[in-house]
């Protein structure tokens, strides 16, 4: 288990700097120094969304208060980046041990026309049974993507279509402040290190 | 060989054989497109499409023209690219296979899209794929492979991480 990362290791590494960061939980969103990801602490984005989970329940960001939500946009017919990102997320959760239990992976479909709640539920849960999938109308989807600055578009492919989309994973702290953007090029370990930094703040 | 050449009739036979053998060798050289490690991503029930991946090496400058499979109504070749964390996807007409160069059809670039699946692809299923390749001379070659279905979680660096085995 040499790839196992816990908060204790990161706290030791951060020392006094870590203490200073702890002040961030008062609702202020001080800029954070991430090793690999992009600090989004001062970005006004992704604050409001209202979508439906696969059980038909309406969910907003506050539904995940107390957890560390990690939001990824994609579609189930995505052959490459989506399964890779979700498999990485599952790996990160395991790597973080107990701390990983606060990581709530949220998959938002950019293809609500084809991604039914049933397909979405089975799709995300094959990676990790705790993962949730959210879906909205075409208008809701366009709205939430705009909120996150996420690009997506249909690409014609024969009689059907495939999709292009932003592949960043967006991470919120437990108070619902957007904190971190993780590139699909990062490894699970690199992501886990930055996620532990988010946890130290709030 | 010398002994054979001394006897005319046999020499003729032997020559014909050599020519035939050479022809055989060159024929198989023409038909030399190697496909390695083909696999298909398993699907969940109701998921209408999936991706197929492999490594292809052609002996001469060739082109992968198309792929077909009985498991899907429509099989296309797509290319994925990533710029500033935006993943772009789209169909391509063909994939160039430069002589001797191994071209990877993997989640990072080109891949085969199995669209309009006739049913769920479960882990361990063998998915037949037929590749049509055109060589430098314009001759087409058909390569049949059987691609095992792997779980969605499978193709990660996880596989190389002994700490993460279950």
TrEMBL record, chain A:
InterPro entries: SCO1/SenC, Thioredoxin-like_sf. Gene3D superfamilies: Glutaredoxin. Pfam families: SCO1-SenC. Signal peptide: none annotated. CDD domains: SCO. It comes from the Bacteria. Belongs to the SCO1/2 family. This is SCO family protein.
TrEMBL record, chain B:
Keywords: Signal. This is Copper chaperone PCu(A)C. Transmembrane segments: none annotated. Gene3D superfamilies: PCu(A)C copper chaperone (2.60.40.1890). SUPFAM superfamilies: DR1885-like metal-binding protein. Residues 1-31 form the signal peptide.
């Amino acid at each position: 288990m040499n790839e196992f990362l816990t908060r204790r290791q990161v706290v030791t590494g951060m020392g006094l700097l870590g203490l200073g960061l702890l002040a961030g939980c008062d609702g202020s969103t001080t800029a954070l120094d991430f090793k690999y990801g992009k600090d989004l602490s001062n970005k006004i984005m992704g604050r409001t969304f209202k979508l439906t989970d696969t059980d038909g329940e309406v969910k907003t960001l506050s539904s995940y208060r107390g957890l560390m939500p990690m939001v990824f946009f994609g579609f189930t017919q995505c052959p490459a980046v989506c399964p890779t990102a979700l498999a990485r997320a599952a790996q990160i959760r395991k790597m973080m041990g107990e701390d990983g239990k606060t990581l709530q992976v949220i998959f938002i479909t950019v293809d609500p026309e084809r991604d039914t709640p049933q397909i979405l539920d089975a799709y995300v849960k094959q990676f990790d049974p705790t993962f949730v999938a959210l879906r909205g109308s075409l208008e809701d989807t366009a709205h939430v993507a705009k909120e996150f600055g996420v690009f997506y578009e249909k690409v014609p492919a024969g009689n059907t279509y495939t999709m292009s989309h932003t592949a960043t994973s967006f991470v919120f702290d437990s108070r619902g402040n957007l904190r971190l953007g993780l590139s699909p090029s990062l490894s699970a370990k690199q992501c886990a290190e930055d996620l532990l930094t988010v946890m130290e703040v709030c | 060989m010398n002994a054979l050449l001394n006897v005319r009739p046999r020499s003729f036979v032997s020559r014909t054989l050599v020519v035939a053998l050479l022809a055989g060798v060159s024929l198989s050289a023409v038909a030399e497109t190697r496909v390695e490690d083909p696999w298909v991503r398993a699907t969940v029930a109701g998921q209408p499409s999936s991706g197929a991946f492999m490594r292809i090496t052609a002996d001469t400058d060739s082109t992968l023209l198309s792929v077909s499979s009985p498991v899907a109504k429509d099989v296309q070749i797509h290319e994925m690219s990533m710029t500033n964390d935006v993943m772009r996807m789209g169909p391509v007409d063909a994939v160039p296979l430069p002589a001797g160069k191994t071209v990877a059809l993997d989640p990072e670039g080109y891949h085969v899209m199995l669209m309009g699946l006739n049913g769920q692809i479960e882990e361990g299923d063998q998915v037949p794929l037929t590749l049509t390749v055109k060589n430098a001379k314009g001759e087409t070659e058909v390569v049949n492979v059987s691609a095992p279905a792997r779980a969605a979680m499978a193709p990660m660096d996880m596989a190389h991480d002994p700490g993460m085995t279950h």
